[in-house]
Amino acid sequence: MQDDDFYELRIYETAQARWQGLSQQMGEDVPPLFRRHGFDVPLMHYEGVGGPFGPIYGYLLRWRNLDDRMRAWGAFYSDPEWIAKMTANYQGEQRVERAHIAFMRAAALWARYRGAGSADGGGLVDGIYELRRHDLSGQDRATAQAQVAGQLDAMQAAGGQILGVFETIIGAPVQRLVSVTAWRDVTALAAHGAADEPAGPPHDAFLLRPAPYGRARADFAPHPQP
Amino acid sequence: MTTWLDTTKRQLFELRFDMLAPGRAIADLRAWHLDSAPGRAAAGVPAPEGVWTVRLGSRGPGLVTLTRWPSLTDRQAALGAWLDTPAARGQLWDGARGLIRDAESWILIDSPAGAGRVGPATVAGGLHEMRLYRALNGSVAEAAQALADHDLAAAQEAGAQPTGLYEIAIGPERPLIAATFAWPPGVLPADVWLALDARADTGARRLAERARHRRRLIGLVEPILLQPVEAP
């Protein structure tokens, strides 16, 4: 399946104890504003429950054109309704400390997993998600990609559902694959031990809990606009 | 409370860091950059606004390239496609034989606060510097204006030419502001920044900023010392 879309991964480092207000705003205030300015429904919203740093909150967007993306964000940020709602929600203090934004494309490797976990036609995926950033830099690309495939195959065999595999192009360091795997629950995650992992390039990983309004569909299928 | 940047009315730049692979010489990367310029031009990549080697600082040793793009669609069609060619991939990334160990690509937008302060390098022979400033989220425009009014002004008083002031739109970290300078020969930039920090008015201004925001307006600063790459 040819996938020419761009994917925007946003990871917000949030201020301590101010995550919930941000999540509430993203779930209630933001969706109509996103619709107004031409955003698709984000493919997932999440909070971080493990990983290199925290607390974090984030989401994944899909774009067909990066210039449309720049225009949409510009219009969103300057929308008086957004400014009013954000100001009211923030109550004089920022909720987001730092933002990490990466543009990605679908990796060729994703085709290997598409369709494997969508028996119910792209239904919402429960559980917890494991987002890995595989570092292919300085290595033979074909070999490193094959090793990542081996690791994802092992996760899939252990009950993980591969939601997507991406390649970074702008923002994050390039030459990285980003994979998102859903686990039914923490027991399933723990059952796939690190010792079971085939060899592969170095990676870091975040453990994500999807927000109640932000569960992904299988294969990151688009959500319908409400 | 905030002034968000409108990314549609300003100029887009791509800042790319190519970090040298172990065992390779910076001269190899510099030569590759110069030798491959005709191929990039044929692919529609504009001549860069600036090319430097990292003399000292993070992401070094390596090459830093700043390119202006009319749109991100143009960027993808030109540089994105060229970087994905087997030749470029092979030369840059080919395992132990590749020129670079890692690379980062950021999208920058010129800051209106730099108008009247920044311009082409008018001094030659000294170091260049890129300073990356962590700004308070939601207050980027104010931080950029403070940098233009005070830091860029102090650099000019010391004989430097500020050559750019940018907000990072897409990058590994935001909010971040980048400023570039061309320093005159014999000047160590840190001496100018330390003198600025020691001024009473600087201290008073920062205290006022902190009282206003309950946080620092500008946090950590990361300086990268650079040397421009000139075409032979």
From TrEMBL, chain A:
Signal sequence, renumbered to the chain: none
Pfam families assigned to the protein according to its UniProt record, in alphabetical order: NIPSNAP
Residue span(s) of domain NIPSNAP: 7-107
Domain of life of the source: Bacteria
Protein name (database record): NIPSNAP family protein
Organism of provenance: Ruixingdingia sedimenti
UniProtKB/TrEMBL annotation, chain B:
Gene3D superfamilies: 3.30.70.100
UniProt-recorded name of the protein: NIPSNAP protein
Naturally occurring in which organism (per UniProt): Ruixingdingia sedimenti
